[in-house]
Amino acid sequence: MNIAVVGLGLIGGSIAKAAKQNTEHRILGMDINESVRLKAKLLDAIDEVCTTDDLPNCDMVILALHPRAAEEWLQQSAARLKEGSLVVDCCGTKRKICQIGFELAEKYRFHFIGGHPMAGIERSGFDASSGKLFSKASMILTPEQNCDIRQLEFAKRFFLSLGFARITLSTPEEHDRIIAYTSQLAHVVSSSYMKSPTAFSHTGFSAGSFRDMTRVARLHEGMWTELFLENREFLAAEIDRLVLQLQRYREAITEQREDDLRILLKEGRELKHKIDELS
Amino acid sequence: MNIAVVGLGLIGGSIAKAAKQNTEHRILGMDINESVRLKAKLLDAIDEVCTTDDLPNCDMVILALHPRAAEEWLQQSAARLKEGSLVVDCCGTKRKICQIGFELAEKYRFHFIGGHPMAGIERSGFDASSGKLFSKASMILTPEQNCDIRQLEFAKRFFLSLGFARITLSTPEEHDRIIAYTSQLAHVVSSSYMKSPTAFSHTGFSAGSFRDMTRVARLHEGMWTELFLENREFLAAEIDRLVLQLQRYREAITEQREDDLRILLKEGRELKHKIDELS
Fold first, then answer.
1. What are phi and psi of A138, to 5 degrees?
2. Which of A150, A203, B16, B166 is the most buried (most CB within 10 A)?
3. Do B183 and A225 touch (CB under 8 A)?
4. Residues of A in contact with B194 (CB under 8 A)
5. CA separation (Å) from B245 to A87, A220, B166, B248, B261?
6. Which residues of chain B are within 8 Å of residue A142 when distances are taken between CB atoms?
């Protein structure tokens, strides 16, 4: 099977490498950056460089671009895609790209399934990619309600073969609501956390909690700006919830309501325990 | 040299184990829990169980109790301590314990240096202790202004021998101000983060950022309540700063001020980069 990976950054590069290592498919790679294309070919992350002329011969296309670039690429390339082929994107929000993908798929007779690999690191680009990035991770798929079940089955098997530990099925709406909390809010907090003037005094006064809390402040601001704006209602609701909680803790602390503070912390510990057990 | 470790929990147990492994000192251990005392002896984490009768023979006392228990122990035991001996506590805030320690030290002619090992994990108790807990960590010491320089030198060498990578000297006030940000705020955020109702849907939708953000929500609420209340002004100021930042991000998101949002995220990334380089 010919599989095109469009965008050879952290995610696309890792998908190409994992597919080359773990499957027999022919992997074609597309990237706007020539040196990335050449490096991917040289390192055997792809079998061949992919051009727009190759698209009609591809049975599967994996779209690993930032949200707006992915939307534009899909609109420009839909007419060239092979009838009956499968397109899966990798964007961090799902409502907008899926709306575009589902409509174009119907018009041009290909299949579209939304995707979001729950694996990232605080670095980006092909050089940071790894065939092992998806180990133990969850791959979220957001198919259309009336999607072709064989295509969904194929997508599940394909992503499991890349090393994902589990496939999570969701709707674009549910995905965006939950991801606002599990991922986007964490990035907003990490970035906000860095803004205290006390940060410059941290040397010698910090350990694991500071490191973990601020790790993802090393984000790609271009991509995350797009993701946050596309998901602004859900994300704003989660920021508001967190701020409300922080204010509850703050009041218990400044008013020295010792029992209330202990209960707030106990509730947090118990929730963490329960929720980790769900995983 | 006879060294008493008072309190054989995560920190005291780890200090005893590291001291036994890496030094020639005779390690005596004190704990209110008999089974912990017996287990520590059985596992060679200590040479002998320590009673109050042994205190006049101890050249160094390491106080590894929660803040209030440490304050009480010091008040009750100061009269029994050996003249010229050195006491170092391990409390997570330093102003209150140091004030008590410095006063009693002058009255009873022993030496007191405030201490805070910047190494913890999200578990507590002797069973979680390890002789390797302090590897790569910083040991903060807050001596009195006119402290005996030989005692300080001894304390530095002793803690480096336990595996600490560096000794950070500070005043109790500076320590409490910075620790409110680097450690206490992170614990407040982690605990608050767990309170969103969305948390129960996280399975399959989360990865490293959620795990790191909420790791320290598994805190010992009794100890952290004491620490937060002792440090309430500094901690409240840091919570306020974070809330203010979160609201700036929230407004840029909901008002779709794309350039402003990108700049906020870029600033956070650059601060994280600069501050990591300081370490």
1. -105, 135
2. B16
3. no
4. 267-268, 271-272, 275
5. 39, 19, 32, 5, 12
6. none
The mean pLDDT value of chain A amounts to 97
Which residues of chain A neighbour B273 with C-beta distances below 8 Å?
218
Quick check: B210 and A182 CB within 8 A? Answer: yes
Question: Which structure tokens are listed for B209?
Answer: 């950022």
Instruction: Round to the nearest angstrom and report the end-to-end CA distance of chain A.
Output: 34
Shared domain for B29 and B136, answered yes or no, is yes
- Which residues fall within 8 angstroms of residue A124, CB to CB, at 6 or more apart? A9, A10, A220, A223
Q: For residue range B221-271, what is the model confidence (pLDDT) as tens digits?
A: 999 999 999 999 999 999 999 999 999 999 999 999 999 999 999 999 999
Angle between helices A221-230 and A232-254 (to 10 degrees): 100
E-strand stretches of B97-222? 111-117, 138-143, 166-169
Report the phi/psi class of residue B7: left, alpha or beta, with left for phi > 0 and alpha for psi in -120 to 50.
left
- Using a CB-CB cut-off of 8 Å, the residues of chain A touching B174 are 201
Tens-digit pLDDT profile for residues A119-158: 978 788 999 999 999 999 999 999 999 999 999 999 999 9
Nearest one of B209, B210, B203 to A168, comparing CA atoms? B203
The answer to whether residues B163 and B182 belong to one domain is no
A136 shares its domain with A186: no
Q: Does the pLDDT at position A43 exceed 90?
A: yes
* CA distance linking residue B200 with residue A99, whole number of Å: 27
Q: Which of B139, B170, B201 is the last residue of a domain?
A: B170
- What residues of chain B, 197 to 226, have a C-beta less than 8 Å from chain A? 198-210, 212-219, 221-222, 224-225
B265 with A191: Cβ contact below 8 A: yes
Q: How far apart are CA B26 and CA B197, in angstroms?
A: 52
Last residue in a domain, options A135, A156, A171: A171
CA-based nearest residue to B87, from B95, B78, B129, B96: B78
